[in-house]
Amino acid sequence: MHVADQLAAQAGAPPSGRRLSGWLRTFRRKAALKDSESKAWDETLGQVIADLDLLNHNTEQDFLRIGGKLSEFSEAVGLISFELTALADMMSAEQGLRASHALTGILDGFTKIRARAEEGNGLLDGMLREAGLVKRTLSGFKGTVSTLTTLGVLTRIETARLGAASADFGPLADAVKSLSGSVQERVENALDTASQLIPPIESVLISSAALEKRQTNDLPAMISEVLAQLASFADMQKRALASSVRMRSQYGAISDAFKKLVVSIQFHDITRQQVEHVIEILRRLSPDSEGQEGGISRDPQSAAAVLALQSSQLADAGEKFAVSVASIARSLDDIAAHVLEMTEESRSLSGFSEVEKNSFSLRMEQSCSAILAGLVHCDNAEAANEATHRGLAETIGRMRGAIEEIQTVEIQMERLALNANIRAAHIGGSGDALAVLAGTIQQLAFESRGRSESLLQALGSMSQAGTRLAVRCASAGSDHCEETMRVAIAELHSSSERSFAQIGQITVRSTRLREDLSATRESFSVGSVFAEAVRRARGTLQEIVEQNQPTFSPPGAEAMGRDLDDFARHYTMQAERDVHEGVTKAVARPASVAVQAEQSEFPLKAAEELGENVEFF
Amino acid sequence: MSAVPVKILEWTPEYAVQVAEIDREHQVWFEVVNRLHAAMLAGKGVEILGVLLAETTRYTSDHFAHEEQLMAAVDYPELRAHVQQHDGLRRQAREFRKRFERGEVTMTIELTLFLSAWIKQHTMTTDRQLGRYLSTCRRGAARNGSVRRLNPQVSSR
Question: What ipTM describes this predicted complex?
């Protein structure tokens, strides 16, 4: 038999079910407290009430603070999730398409530029070869001048030797001399022009060719870089899609943690009500409440039993509170951990490692800069080509003029040689030497004409190459290739900087949220405070129980303790209210599991039989 | 829901060097980075890059001149090393401007990373050390009863 039943039996009360109330009712009739004991009681209980009141107030403040923070946390997580999703979408969809399009456009542009550069290189190489030929050919004229001068001297000697027989040859020597001087002057003039003009042309051609060659050499590297970026982008798009799935899962986990947090905070409401109820019962034990409605009898033994019950309730509240606090702390840690994962996800999504300089966005920006620098080289090469063409056209014109002048001398040489031959034939045998001289002049004229023609041909080739270069430059400008590439780079860079800024934003938000969560977690020391306060209050109540039940050691006391614990474990205010109503009105059935389970054992009694102190329930 | 720009580099008391005028000037720097970030978030960093580079160069010059005057006025023992750091940033700022003027407009990410790192590092270490020294000098002057003004015009350099 339960101790309450035993006690109730002693007092003529019914067995358990309503046994707690019966048990208390029986012992309320025991001796009243002495005045001095009563005063000590009141003070001690007053302190316990004040402590529990303060505890409830403080814990409520802590929970309200967390509750208030919840909406902030939730909003921050929502923003982070929104931005992460936007980032992943941007990378995998809009930005991905744009960037791929831009990179493909840049690749096409580079391919065109490369083809143009290779063609330009070929033309410039040809022009350099022709310029070398012009130079060598002009050098050949030096020999012609020297030979012609010698021929002039020999003609004079020969005409002198012939004496009167050469009377008709007088003008021939003068003509050869004059022609020699004329050729010398014009060739020197042409050589002088060449010496002044060819080196600058060569220089322009060399620098232009170097630029073109540099462009040709750089372009493959740039094209490789763009191809690599395209591959990276494709890879990043795949990662962005996978990342979106993971982020959704992380967001789901955070939402779950929030739900748990809310449940834990709500759970606190139960413990708060338990403590409030204990406070209420303790207040009803005060002398002011005695005799009032709801006042509890202050007879030591029944009061001790009431206090023991409250102590058990506090113990139960303490356990529930500890579980609730641990769950809140766990939920906060979970949220912080998931926020960290989300941040890392965004960083790895864009290729951020520990070193930000390795980020995908920054590498993309560096590629954009390299491509822009490449385009500047292209511009420079095109400008140099244009300058080369303009300078070349002018030089070729001047060279043509000089060569045409030499050609007029060649004609004179041929005529002179022809005249000399005719006169030598008139003289007969003594004119043989003169005929040899005339033949040599003719040969010289022939060679000179060959050189002039070669020169004109070389200049013609150079001129044609120059025209093709000019056409190429004009077509480069008209297809707007570089301009299109610059627009594509601007778009690509704009996307990269948006991603970069978005990730920075997410990182800052996450860092702040984690710090906030951590601060909240650190300041949430209410668990230990509550446990300590409950331990202290229970100790005090226990002391009062022991002091006021010196002789209270009924058989089955241990079982009674278990009953109280059991009641407290399944305690609800409704259960207590049911007990109260059951006792006072003798109609209600208690809802508490423990009490309800044994309801059938309770024969209902009339309210008047339950004593005046049952109201406290 | 929309992505409202956050301050990517928020001035908090941990960046304070405890000298009000320097702290105020540092906050301008933080704002430059935040403005650049906000523009980048909209994909329009390049549009304000020229203005920001000009401002950064001018502001860097003014702020550094001010700090250097303060240091000289109190015979700050670390003046030389501090000025070397300033010169480093002046050089970098000029270099960024030159690149921009050459047509290299794609440098917003690099500029943000560079400025953020430099400002954090310089403010948290070198300037804080200067701030401590200046505060000590001012407290000493106040204790001595002589209102020793830290006249920036008086240079001992």
Answer: 0.84
